[in-house]
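Researcher: Next entry in the queue.
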Amino acid sequence: MSQAAPKQSNYKRLFSNTIIFAIGSFSSKILVLLLVKVYTTYLSPQEMGVNDVITQIANWLQPIVTMTISEAVIRFGLDKAYDNKKVFTLGNIVCLTGLAILAIILPIVTISGVADKYLSGYSFLLYVYIFMSSLKLVYSTFVRSIEKVKLFAVNGILTAFFTLFGTILFICGFKMGNTGYLLSIIMSDFISIIFLTVAAKLWRYIEFKKPDREMLRTMLQYSVPLIPAQLLWLITNSSDSFMTTHYMGSEANGILSASYKIPNLVATVYLMFGQAWNMSAIMEDDSDDRNEFYENVFLLNQCLLYMLAAGCLLIVQPLTNIWLGEAFHDSARYSPILIYSSVFSCFTTFMGSIYLASKRTKRSLVTSLFSGIINVGLNVILIPRIGLYGPAISTVASYVAVFIIRAYDSRKLVPFNLHIGKIVINNIILVAMVLINVFQFIIGYRVLTFIALPILFLIVFLLNFKTLWNAAENLLPKKITGIINRLGASRITVLCIALCVFAAIVYLTKGFIIYPIAAAAVIAGLLKNKKIAVYAGIALVFLTSWDIFGIETAVAAAALCLIIPLAVYHTNAELLVCAVAADALMFVVGGIYLAVFCLMAELLAAIIIFRKQLFRILEKIMFK
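Model: Structure for this entry, 624 residues:
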């Protein structure tokens, strides 16, 4: 019994941290994915291509500038043998020193004109973007290292809110294009830094007077080998963009960038787990049941990834049409291959955590080298010959190769069972789904898609569901497990089939089937006095109208629908919701200035109407 408790606590801590990180990451990462509709509406494919290149440049410069010190911050911050104050102080010193050097070098590069093709006049914004992003990375990583994971989650929600606000203000309102995109992220990162500093009182962990040089050397010995490792990894991730721009132009790169949006759904879900897993891998590195822990977690991890990838491959075609719009329809040709590559990308990240936990970061460098060589080499050969299929295929090849290398090498440090049979069977099915999606564009035969893809998805679901469910039974609340047990495997399978059929109907009717469903939800909510059903129906009207007719029609339709709950319930809450909807409609119809004018008028009216309540509140504050 003495060993069972700690084993169970390992999984519960991992599960608990995953849920917390999911809450924080969901709002930020999912919001970014949802904003794709805004970007594809307000940015042209060429602007999307330029925007992608600038973002990739920032991603390449950041590990060099910061010396990947954030990885050392979390590794040594979680280790109780080291002083957190010294860890955070040294993290700030290294990060700020690198940013100061970049402030000298970047203007020289700009004046020389060497990188004009890629920087496109965004040098200053690029520096500010890297500055804010680097500090935010160090600060948020340190918050995780002192195990303030709930604060980390709140910070994710706050960042998401201000990203949304900045996007509406700069891109939709002032029509600032790529500049607006960068400004929205810079603003959210700056607010995140201020929030983390104040909420975690991070100034208590900074002492610049006497930095520990020996500890600095130890942290740099850990983090510096990760610089080329991350750069080589970025070559795999971003050389596709640069080489596509070089061979085919910015517009083609915009299509490729859009092709990554659906695969990023898989990576986003894994990120929620990966942040928690890195902490558990470091904290459990010396535990007695480490090997068994790694085996069980990897098994759950791969089952989840197979189901996610199969689900994305099932709906990639209709989701592309609905989510990305007509201008980026061609991205559906390449997304299936990239969805498959995301599975092995997550696998290699999992294996890389072994190197980080055991402080063998040089091995991460060596294995990443193979990824860069394969990716660049295949891009040079394939892009001129087969176009955008080239970077997609090279990405798959590089990730698969590195996973095989890391799976062999990392198990010398932590020997655990990979369950090779499960990997082979699931990958055969996923490859079949990829080929069906790709060949429907080449041969133009879509009937097979509607028949074969749902069948293959159900096979993947049934192969992996039991493993996930056995783990979930021990971790989820008993009420949830009781409901699922009462449903049973057969009913869950029927529900999945029904969901597939519904998705097909939505696709074939181009979304119009949603309107009667939304109307039924509103009517049922009014009859049974369920506000949540009423507002859910109105939300469906908004999202469907946005996809079919555009944002202007969607806002107008939602504003009209909101008159119904206002007339029925006529409370202050409904009045506030309707006022917000009216402001949004004024913004869409007349622009930012008309919306601000209406907002000011509403505030003035509210002050006049609620003047007595305001006076009482002011009296309490002033004479407390």
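Model: The radius of gyration is 26 Å.
Researcher: Noted, moving on.
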